[in-house]
Design goal:
It is found in: Cell membrane. The chain is mostly helical. It has a single domain, classed as Up-down Bundle (Rhopdopsin 7-helix transmembrane proteins). It is 80% helix and 0% strand.
């Protein structure tokens, strides 16, 4: 379901000329990240639940952590870029095409990916210096960085310190870049005299804000739990929601709350009907 929903958004953006704008370029990139983000954890989780083996090697576990952190970091960074895109579109509409041209969009996405690769690689390099017992039990559905640190036989002070420093510096900066533009955006929207313009601006921002709140809310609830050492059922449910359900919710939010996506979907259905009926006519002839 996650792959189908996100792939449908990517196909609509690629095939519909009305959606080939910077805003939907970032949305298509977000859909691609969601497909990768869910594919890192969900297939292995379903395989373990089906076979009931529940075994994973240390190398595979660290690999899963690397890609999970990389894609999660890429997603929150891209959400910050999308906030900047909305800021330019609403607060400086006359300069939008000059500021957010295609070269800028590609550079921003590549920058997001490069920062995320370095960010996740630093964590993995410090993980490789730790030692573990032959068999460890992780109380979760997939390999997660805090869980792996808890079962290490060596001191993890440097790893935890690294997580805190990077979370405060990098995470705090991305958080500010995501939400600060909306202060100016909301102020600009409230000054608009036309109700139609205000409605359109709120519509484009509401979908993005909904996705941001879902992603940040699930992440904060998952990793800011004071009882992190005690993996109760609620912790497992939140980790499942954060890793598997968030990428499923994102395409639903954009498809249900975005008028242009819905119109594009209807146009695609009409094209499919025309193609289907033309094939039937050809077969009958």
């Amino acid at each position: 379901m996650t792959l189908t929903g996100n792939l449908l958004i990517v196909l609509l953006i690629c095939t519909d000329s009305h959606l080939q704008t910077p805003m939907y370029f970032f949305l298509g990139t977000l859909a691609c990240l969601d497909m990768g983000y869910s594919s890192v954890t969900t297939p292995r989780m379903l395989f373990d639940l089906y076979t009931q083996k529940m075994l994973i090697s240390l190398q595979a576990c660290i690999t899963q952590i690397y890609f999970f952190v990389l894609l999660a970091m890429s997603e929150i960074s891209l959400l910050a870029v999308m906030s900047y895109d909305r800021y330019v579109a609403i607060c400086h509409p006359l300069l939008y095409t000059q500021v957010m041209h295609w070269k800028t969009c590609v550079v921003l996405v590549l920058g997001v990916l490069m920062v995320s690769v370095v960010f996740s690689l630093v964590h993995v390099l410090f993980l490789l210096k730790l030692t573990f017992c032959t068999i460890n039990t992780l109380q979760g559905f997939f390999c997660d960085l805090p869980q792996l640190l808890l079962v290490s036989r060596t001191d993890t002070f440097i790893n935890v310190l690294l997580i805190l420093i990077i979370a405060l510096l990098v995470g705090g900066s991305i958080f500010a870049l995501t939400f600060c533009p909306y202060i100016i955006i909301l102020n600009t929207i409230m000054k608009m005299q036309s109700k139609a313009m205000r409605s359109k601006a709120f519509s484009t921002c509401s979908s993005h804000l909904t996705v941001v709140f879902i992603f940040y809310g699930a992440g904060l609830f998952r990793y800011c739990n004071p009882n992190a050492k005690d993996y109760y059922a609620v912790d497992r449910v939140t980790s499942l929601f954060y890793a598997a359900l968030t990428p499923l919710v994102n395409p639903l939010v954009y498809s249900l709350r975005n008028k242009e996506i819905k119109i594009s979907f209807k146009r695609a259905l009409c094209r499919l009907k025309i193609t289907f009926f033309s094939l039937i006519v050809d077969v009958r002839h």
